Amino acid sequence: MKTYKSIEETIADVRKKDKRYNYVILIVVILMIAVIASLIIYAQDKRNRANEELIAKYELELIENKRLRMQDSLQTDSITQLVKTLRKELATIERKLDKNEIPEADKMVVLNNVNLAQDKLNRITNNVMDHTIVRYYKRKADGNRIERLIQSMKDPKFNLNLKQVPNDDGRTSVNTVWYGADVEKGEVRELVNALLQIGVNIKNVKEFDNPSTKDWKSEAIEIGYEALPNTTKSVTKADLSRYVTKNTNSNYYVRLYSYNPNAVVKRNLTQYIKKQNYNLKVYPDWEKKPSFFSNSPTIFYYSDKSKAAAEELKNTLNKLNRRLNFTIKRGNGYGIEKRDLDNTFIVHYLQ
What we know:
The protein is an alpha/beta fold. Among the domains are: 131-246, no CATH class; 249-350, Alpha-Beta Plaits (2-Layer Sandwich). Helix content is 47%, strand content 15%. It has helices spanning 7-98, 104-128, 145-152, 185-197, 263-275, 307-320; strands at residues 132-138, 158-164, 176-179, 204-207, 220-224, 253-259, 279-282, 298-301, 327-330, 344-350. The strands form two sheets. A five-stranded mixed sheet has the order 2-1-5-3-4. The chain has a five-stranded mixed sheet with strand order 7-6-10-8-9, covered by helices on one side. Helix 3 (145-152) links the parallel strand 1 (132-138) and strand 2 (158-164). The chain is elongated and about 135 Å long. 18% of the residues are buried. Keywords: Coiled coil, Membrane, Transmembrane, Transmembrane helix. The chain crosses the membrane at residues 21-43. Residues 303-330 form a coiled coil.
């Protein structure tokens, strides 16, 4: 005789089947999540490895770049030595002028040629060396003490450019220091202070007001004579406090990366960041745009503590060139040690 399950037994069997089915579904879902998570982790790891390889390649390029810079430095030293030799020859001509060993009729022609030669040497020196140019309009009344002072200074170090003054009667000494808009004021302070220490009577220190100084003079200093009222007081060491540059930029480290940059703009950025006392490390240009590189000029910061400083850096760089439009962005900190998160900026620059 065929037996039939009770309703209760039938319901219990259905529930057992549902539980088994739910377990199977749960296991399948867990397996799918595990597979997806593994794929995501693998993709991220693969991307990180690719980034590590790019950075390693970049470090090798940096080493090669340093080697090339060293090679360029040797060439620069050769050019610098040549410039020194030429300047000695010019100094010999100048002494002959002072001692009247050159006929009076030829003096003006020789003087003009000397000044032209000095200008050419100035351009050469400006191209091969990073030091600020000091153009000194030499006067007989000052002797050789000023040029010797400038040549002996080490921190900061300057490129001396001598300029002869026509019809110098030996009665007037230098009394004014001019400086360009892009000259670091700390350098102006150190130079004027050094002049005061050797007894040079400086009565005026001011920025160039001539529009024609937008060229190389914007990054240069001049020492010369200017007619001033007799009541003009001499500059004292206490007056130099307004040229003290106080900032905390030396606490920050800036890494400059670039892809397809404008070479002139990049050079200006590099010089300006250095002059603002940041610790700067410049990397070679990327030949191909990496996947992690920004699509526009960007400054990355990595801590809330450094956000305001990043904003300040952004504003100063944008003022440097109106075509630049840097923005700031919080980075994820990949590749930066924990102790450096509060004081590191990474700059991505591209046209």
